[in-house]
Amino acid sequence: MADAERTPLFAEGGASTLALVGYITLAVVLMVADSRGGYLDQVRAGVLDLFAPVYRVAEWPSKAGEAVAWHWTDRNELQARQEALHRELLQARSELAQLRDSDREAARVRALVDFIVRERQPGQVARLINVDLDTYAHRILLDKGSADGVGPGTVVFDGRGIAGQVVEAGRHTCAVMLISHPEHAVPVEIERSGVRAIAYGTGQYDQLALLELPLTADVREGDRVQTSGLGGRFPSGYPLGEVTALEREPGAAFARATVAPYARLIQAREVLLLPPVVFEGPSTQPDLASPPGS
Amino acid sequence: MALRRTESQLYWLSWLVAVLLTLWPGPPWFLKFKPFWFGLVAVYWALESPRRMSLGKAFVFGLLADGLQGVLIGEMALRLTILVYVCQRFRFRLRFFAISQQAAAIFGLFLNDRVVSLWVRLGGGYGWPDASFWASPLIAALLWPWLFLLMDRLQHYERRTG
User: Fold this and answer.
1) A198: contact with B, CB 8 A cutoff
2) 3-class SS shares of chain B: helix, strand, coil, % to 5
3) For a surface tag, which of A6, A26, A197, B141 has the fewest beta carbons within 10 Å of its beta carbon?
4) Are A23 and B68 a contacting pair at CB < 8 A?
5) Tell me: the pLDDT tens digits for B12-69?
6) Chain B residues inside the 8 Å CB shell of A40
7) Is B81 at the interface with chain A, CB within 8 A?
8) A267 touches chain B (CB under 8 A)
């Protein structure tokens, strides 16, 4: 009687095969619920808040190490670094000035041909919480959360390319699914030819895959791949990566391209958070009469 | 002592250290060779006494680790439960092994863990992992003697003073 009433969770005694089978079944059910159904998404956001203090404490040793390294960095080296950054800034500024002009023009054209109007919102900078989650989780943690207006779908850009998107947001912490995660997909286009595709994560940090490309698609090695803005989450025109390999097997129905992401997925320190694209509409009739700004 | 302590401080301390070591990023080249600290600590306590590391505890700690590391919920729970089960099954034999033999057994245990992990990852669509994936059993076997001696020392020390 006492045995029957004892909770199996913390049962004493030797290894019970029946208990093992029970736990394995439970674990498999949980894994399937988590991966297929997304039933545990709510739980995950709560868990993030629960563990946030642990992450903050766990990053102290590496923070201290960094502080020491910073303290002992050579003055000349710092000067060189600063000069390099300054040059980069100047270059970026001049490019930006050119872009502004063409952007205005593009906005006018877009208003004529497209009925979706992109609303520009400023991004915010977030710092990476320097803890190592399981390498296979393809996740990073950032120090911004729902209190800072960050929610699931917020796009993460690391200055070189799209890095991923926020999947769970706690109060002051958020978890980002990297573009390399096998369940991640980004609608993209080839910059040169405008061919549209979807870039899937492969589970490897250094490659994404464009599957389902038509065999005749105009894609070459070295082509730059950027977000297409389709699907309504990733803003269009952000760089994603570069085509490194193409497979066109004779019997296959589709070609497959491998893309090396520009974003440094695990070494980033600070990233830019871009709110998900907000569409005006979809309106049934494109408003061709009035250009924007009128 | 009026209040019966169910677990020693060392027990919780070892888990805390495992959490910190697991989250510590360290140098980039080290990332792929990071020891499976939760597994090592679970195996140590499972060999110490089945009460301290029951299947249920392994499962619950595994779920917490899943949340902490952001992997598929249930993955770590599955891996720890299987590790602890095998340890309990062969506990009496393992405990009387010489340390070198224990290390060999640890190699086998963690190799099995990698197979379980591979199974989960292939199921999750992660594809075949690279060669460093299989380094874990070797690292665990090399670490085991030192970990075992250290923990044994600490336990003796704790019993004497506590």
Assistant:
1) no
2) 75, 0, 25
3) A6
4) no
5) 999 999 999 999 887 778 878 889 999 999 999 999 888 888 899 999 999 999 989 8
6) 73
7) yes
8) yes
